[in-house]
Records
---
Amino acid sequence: MGKYVVGFNTSGAISKMPKTRRDWERQLVDDFLKAVNGKTYECENEESLMERLRFIAGRGVEQKFRDAPENFVVIGKDRDYGEREIPAAMYGWAQGYVDLEGALAPIMLLGDMVDNAEIEKASARIAFKRFYDSRQYTKQYEGCFVEVRRVA
């Protein structure tokens, strides 16, 4: 058992793609990437970690996400469209079949075998590319990832 922090890092996103008022989809993706960058969530145990990652991967919405939406949305701001709530999950239809357990194996295997200093250095990065299949993936996601760190 351990505590985990799940965070989004979209600072490597390619935002140099041309955007126009008529090309609103690229603008919405760009707004999503800005809104989730640096957003972190604490998970008390492995079960809540997997629930959070399933939500991020777009594998259903649990009732508790509906009951406490402030924990599962970010506010996107844009001068053309104003403010709107965006789910803190993969944008659009994430249909990639990422193996969450396999991606987390490096930090899950630590167990109680190492001291806390080593545990806090352990992390797993899941590239946005792994959440999408080739039909939904866009180059705007290059360099973006979800990072999971074990903190205790």
Note: Residues 4-150 form one domain.
---
Amino acid sequence: MTAISIGEHEQALLILEQCIAILRSPTGLEYPALKFKTFNTIAHLYNVMGQVKMSIKFLRKALKFGLGIPNISQVAYTGPEKIPIIETYINIANAYSFQGMNLEALDYSEKATKMAASCLEASSDRVMHILNITVIAH
């Protein structure tokens, strides 16, 4: 059970702040995916605490590091961070919508939709490639 799930928000925040300190070190520069996940977790914690503005702040930081993952924006990228990046866009859109900032919400919704469409396109291309190989082999 995590500190967040049992309601120990302040303890969770202290632990995550320690993680941030490590990630800001020279070693941390090598791990944009870990920064992405850490900032997403902090954003989730602030959301649970009802601090939506802080949640948005950390979601945007998470997105910055997530988009820094090499080739993440490429259509053919299939790494494990691709779907969470789309979810981060959606979470930002939801948070902005909750704040009544509908234009910002729409902007992030459109970004999520475009990235999701590129994932589907890449997936269908890979499936067709696999099917062609299978048909040719038989």
Note: The two ends are 50 Å apart (CA to CA).
